[in-house]
Design a protein that fits this description.
With about 230 residues, this protein is an alpha/beta fold. The chain contains eight helices and eleven strands.
Length: about 230
Amino acid sequence: MVKKKLVVLTGAGISAESGLKTFRDSDGLWEGYDIEDVATPRGWRKNPQLVLDFYNYRRKEVAKAQPNAAHVGLAALQDDFDVKIITQNIDDLHERAGSKSILHLHGEIFKMRSEIDEERLYDIRDDIKLGDTAEDGGQLRPAIVWFEEAVPMIEPAAELAAAADIFVVVGTSLVVYPAAGLVNYAPRHCPKFIVDKKIPYNSSFYNVTSIEKPATEGVAELRELLKKFL
């Protein structure tokens, strides 16, 4: 039997229940930092040490965090569906929960890159320091897509969305673009499910089931609802 293609877009809300804070929960501050200082090219040019300190701290926080029931529940769906996860999150909790096909839209906290060549990537588990350079001589920086930077994985993500038999959104407010626009690439008549604590009204969505609950509770309900598609 050919499995239906289940495409899942996840955001910060799914990792929040693993203790990873989101900047949108705190009036534009992210772990006490202004996002313009730590998550923009301007911030990097102004004070690279501050940016490195911030992401070195985040890396330690992610390493300590554990996948929650929502991550595990999405991984379990692989038994019955061809699951493709598109995540806005930079953590590796989907991987650790057992999901096999994950596209990171905004980069990964455990990777770093040259500031000269964005395709020159390296794994990193410890700290990045000022003076650490890539083979091309460029200062190493987090391999994170910052605000005001292009999102190179958006086109592959749009292709995945367009091929979906079922499209699911978990833990995202659908206000950060271009990621929020991916739901519009999903075929108009394919079933869509949105799981979030607070779901924004959008008249352009069609064939949508809303599950207004935290990700852990919502994914459990989602799994029950998806049984009718087997």
